[in-house]
Amino acid sequence: MDKWVDLHTHSSFSDGSLTPSALVAAAQEAGLAALALTDHDTCGGVEELLAAGEASPIETAAGVEVSVEFHGRTVHVLGYGIDPTHERLCAALLRIVDGRNDRNVRIIRKLQMLGIRIDLEDVEALAGEQVIGRPHIAQVLVQKGVVGSFEEAFARYLGRGQPGYCERFRLEPEAAIALIAEAGGLAVLAHPSYMNITSPDALAATLDRLKQAGLAGIEAYYTDHTEEQTRLYLEMAEQFDLLVTGGTDFHGSIKPGVALGWGRGSLRVPYVLFERLRDAMQHRER
C-alpha cells in the first residue's frame, strides 16, 4: 500500500488556522503517514506537534520556513530537524517577525491613505494568537467588502508593486542556511518556482551557489508546480546531489483550496522522501 506525506504545513503559530495538535489529527484523517510543521519564521509550534505525533501513528518532524531576500524578492528556505530552542536561530526568527510587525503597521497606514477603513485592531482581532501577516490583512479586506476574495486583495493592494505593499527585513539565503545548520537542521529550498528563475542554466547556477553554502535539498513536489517544473527540479536535485522534499503549503481555512496532503487534488508526496529526509537528519545528529 502506498504511503504519502506532507512536509510543508503551517499552524496557528504562524498564519495557519489549525493548532499543531489539530494538524496532526487532520493528517491522520487524511490518511498521511508523516507530517512536518514549517511555520513562517517561528518554531513555537514544534513542541506541541512532536508531542501530538508521539500520541498518534503519524510520524512528525520539526521544521521552520525562513523568509529570505533573493534579488529583491521574498523566497523561503525550509529547515528540517532543527532544535526549536536554538538561541541564535530563535533570535534571527524574532528579528524577522519584528520586521513583519513593523510592515503590518506601514501597510495599514497605506491602506488608510487610500481611503480604506481598516485598523490594526481589526487584523489583530481576526488573527488572535497567530503571527500577523499579509494574509490576515487580506482576510479583513474581504470581510469588509473591499475586495471579493483573498486573491483579489493581493492583486489590487497587497502584492508586490501594488499600492499597499511594503518591504520588510529578511535574511540572505546563505545566512538562513548557516543558521539552520547551526541549529542541527537541514536546509531545503522551498517552492523554487517562486524564485521566478525561468532559465534552467540560471537555476543551476543559483543551486550551485546555495549548495556551496550548505543547502541540503529542494522542494520538487509542491501544490503549484507544474509537471514540467517538478521534472526540472528532480533533475536539478540529481545533478547537485540534493534531497528531494515536497508538501502542500497547507494553511487550513486561510487557503481553502489547498488540502492537507493533496494540495489542489493531484499532489502526492511519497513516503520514501520522508524516509530519506529522516535518515539524513539522524545522520547529521550523529
Write structural notes for this entry.
With 286 residues, the protein is of the alpha/beta class. The chain has two domains: 5-93 and 173-285, TIM Barrel (Alpha-Beta Barrel); 97-158, DNA polymerase, domain 1, CATH 1.10.150.650. It contains ten helices and seven strands. A seven-stranded mixed beta sheet has the order 1-2-3-4-5-6-7. Helix 9 (227-239) links the parallel strand 6 and strand 7 (243-247). Helix 1 (20-29) packs across helix 2 (46-54), helix 4 crosses helix 5 and helix 5 (134-143) crosses helix 6 (150-158). The protein is globular, with a radius of gyration of 18 Å.
Put the structure in a nutshell.
This protein is of the alpha/beta class and 286 residues long.
Question: What labels describe this entry?
Answer:
single chain, alpha/beta, TIM Barrel, DNA polymerase, domain 1, 10 helices, about 15% strand
The shape is globular
In CATH terms, what is the fold-level topology of the largest domain? TIM Barrel
Order of strands in the sheet with most strands: 1-2-3-4-5-6-7
Contiguous runs where pLDDT drops below 50 for at least 5 residues: none
CATH architecture of the largest domain: Alpha-Beta Barrel
The first-level CATH class name of the largest domain: Alpha Beta
Percent strand: 5-15%
Q: Main beta sheet, described?
A: 7 strands, mixed
Q: Nearest-angstrom radius of gyration?
A: 18 Å
Could you say which structural class the secondary elements and strand pairing correspond to? alpha/beta
Distance between the termini: 32 Å
Number of DSSP-assigned strands: 7
